[in-house]
Structures are given as structure tokens and as C-alpha cells.
Known about the structure:
single chain; 480 residues; alpha/beta; Immunoglobulin-like; 8-stranded parallel beta sheet; 7-stranded antiparallel beta sheet; 24 strands; disordered N terminus
Amino acid sequence: xxxxxxxxxxxxxxxxxxxxxxxxxxxxxxxxxxxxxxxxxxxxxxxxxxxxxxxxxxxxxxxxxxxxxxxxxxxxxxxxxxxxxxxxxxxxxxxxxxxxxxxxxxxxxxxxxxxxxxxxxxxxxxxxxxxxxxxxxxxxxxxxxxxxxxxxxxxxxxxxxxxxxxxxxxxxxxxxxxxxxxxxxxxxxxxxxxxxxxxxxxxxxxxxxxxxxxxxxxxxxxxxxxxxxxxxxxxxxxxxxxxxxxxxxxxxxxxxxxxxxxxxxxxxxxxxxxxxxxxxxxxxxxxxxxxxxxxxxxxxxxxxxxxxxxxxxxxxxxxxxxxxxxxxxxxxxxxxxxxxxxxxxxxxxxxxxxxxxxxxxxxxxxxxxxxxxxxxxxxxxxxxxxxxxxxxxxxxxxxxxxxxxxxxxxxxxxxxxxxxxxxxxxxxxxxxxxxxxxxxxxxxxxxxxxxxxxxxxxxxxxxxxxxxxxxxxxxxxxxx
Length: 480
């Protein structure tokens, strides 16, 4: 029996060696796919609940080690903050009042500034700039910590600008909910918020995004959040109005980002529906990553960036997997094929696996951090703004090169069920006496952004063994 067991063990070991064939990648410093703008997150809804927490601001927007609820976290170092101009208000307009979805939770009702239609003057009594204090406070904390890009975005126009006075959507999810009579007012609203933010908050928005998942058919009167279906035809009518209102307020250089569609395929069809005049109004194309493994990322990159000449961002991604491995898998798909120059997570703090830090949002209580936080840290801490993203021959490897600092960052994903061996050829890079540091996170084990003790870097050959279900980063210094 002992001999049989030994033979079985030898056979198992032999089969693993056959499966774990070394992954060979030869990096090319000339295979450049864009300069990285940064990593980000939306502030609503979490900042409306936790916007007075300086420890969370430190954890999100610096790379310091920060203690949150007793747990020491590596700061993410995000440099993009997305601010939501709310759509809710409780002031009546004559006999009209805001209609509320039956299932929307209070923390998802974002307060808007333009309370009624009596005056479009932001200094008048029709406007209240004191609302939404916590989200605005987190915006200021983000700026103090070095955030460089601020995006103003809208989930819905103010409730009284909608067809049925409901900022969650129309009765039918395929119907536009922005009233045609208020298309100009919606443009005024966003432009006024951008101008007021610059003058009174010290925040200069770098883009304004008027539509959120506009062609998706789930924004209806009893939706869980604010939302508004906006057909491509109505989008094409609103954007020139927004451009006019921004220009009137001296914001000629503030680009419009559109159309922030849910799926890559939605983004393609919306873009292709626009004529050249409409496309010219768009300075940046935003898309969300909720199509995950599906959708034609490559075609979107081609039509928008290569042919259209527009900067392309994945401005929102989220999923319910607390391990972070599904997030990493889709992030790598984006970097390999969509080739954006920015990537943002939706809600860093949210219920269950959706949050990097899970929370009871209604009671304002944080729970123990998900491994997802540490997975995302591999990318946000080490692939910094200004880096050149390099195309690799392997989707599981993301590479970024900082020429000024002589740093090459490699992030490896192994979401399989077996150990993986990497052989990375750096012979096309210059530099002598290269040094390397690294970290590993194993969401299903104990490693949480743990320093790698030994890295097998010999000359310009990196050999790496990566455990299954892990994310691993190696930063190589002295490269030119």
C-alpha cells in the first residue's frame, strides 16, 4: 500500500508539472498604449454617509498606512474623485412635490441644489448651496490629499425637471424621463454647479458627465436609486446646450464626458448614432464595466480612441465578489483590450461584497475590510499617473513604465486553481544592477498586500512563482 501511495503521489506531482508550464513574456518598451491618468472612485453614496471621516479620506486618497476601525490598511492613493450632483429635493412647487420610489433607501437620495423653477440665478432663493454637506466635505478632503482629477456627474436631473417629478425614472424604463421643456434647465444646473464649485469650493472640475447609463432599461419610477433613461437623440440635443451654458460661465475649457453607458456594446451603439457635430462636443468618452467578460472592448477602443481621437475612461466598475479576484479579472481584460487611460471603482464603501469596505449604509457602520481592498491596492499604489501602459502578450500581466523614475511595474493575476510560473524577459530594456520589490495578496489565504521576501531577478530575467488565486506585484528599479 505504501508503494502505491508513493506512486500516486509521484504521478500527481508529475501531472502538476505538465499543467504548470512556465508563462513566458518578453516585454517591449516601445509597445505603448497610453499615458495613465489615474485611478478613482465615485463619492456618492458612501461620502454622503461617511463624508466627515478623515481616516477614510486618508485611506482612499493617500498611500499612507491608515488604521480604519482598528485595521491597518495600505492607502489606495486614488487621484480621481467623481462628484454626483444630486436630483432630490423636498421643497414643493405649488401643488407639485417630488415623487419617491417605493424602494429607494434614504442614503441613495442625493440632495440637489436647484430647489424650484422660479429663478435660474444661483444666488437666488431658488437655490440652496448648503445641502449635500458630507459629499462636499469629502470632495474637499480629497483635494487636500492631492487628487488631481475631479469629475462632475449626474444620475438624474432635478426631480422637477423630469416628466413625472420622480428622479428614479419614468413609469416605463424605456422612456426618457428628462422633460424636453427642461433640457436647457438641466444644462444650466450642471454648468452652475461647476461654476459654483470653482468659485466657492475651490474645486475645478476637469470633466462634466451629464448622463449615467442613459440607454439602459432599468431606470423606472420604483428603482432603487436615482436614474434617468436618456435616448441618444435626447443626448444629442442636451450636449450643445450644456456646452453653451458652460461657455457662458467662462468654462470653455471644461470638457464634456459622455455617454457613460453601462455596457461596452451600448457605448459603441450610442457613439455610432452621433453625427460628427455631436461627437465634436465630446472631449472624453466614459464607459462602465458592467458587461464584464462580454462586450466588444476592442471595437470600442477602435471607434472611440483610434478613429475618434477621444480619451477613453472606464469611469465605473463594481461587483459583489468580496475577494476582488473577479474585479481583477475584468480590470485585466480592460487593460488588455479596452485600453483606457483611467479606471474607477463605483462604491469603495458599500454593502456586502460590493464594497472594498463593507458597511451597514443605513446605520453608518463599517465592517471588516474585504480582501478586495488589498487586491485593488496592487494597481492603484504602483501604477501611478504619468506612467506609460505597455501592451503585453499576456492578459494576466499588466505593465507600466515610469521613465523619469526608471521604474517598471508588473502586476500578475493568477485566478486559476494551480500555481503559475512566470519567466519575464526584460532584455529590451536598458539599465544595469536592477533591483526589485514586491507584494502579494491571496484573498482566500492570509496574505494581504504582504511584502515578497525573495524575488528571483537575475540580470534582465525575472522568474516568479505565483500561488493560485492571487495577485502579485513586482516593481523593478533602475530600468531605462
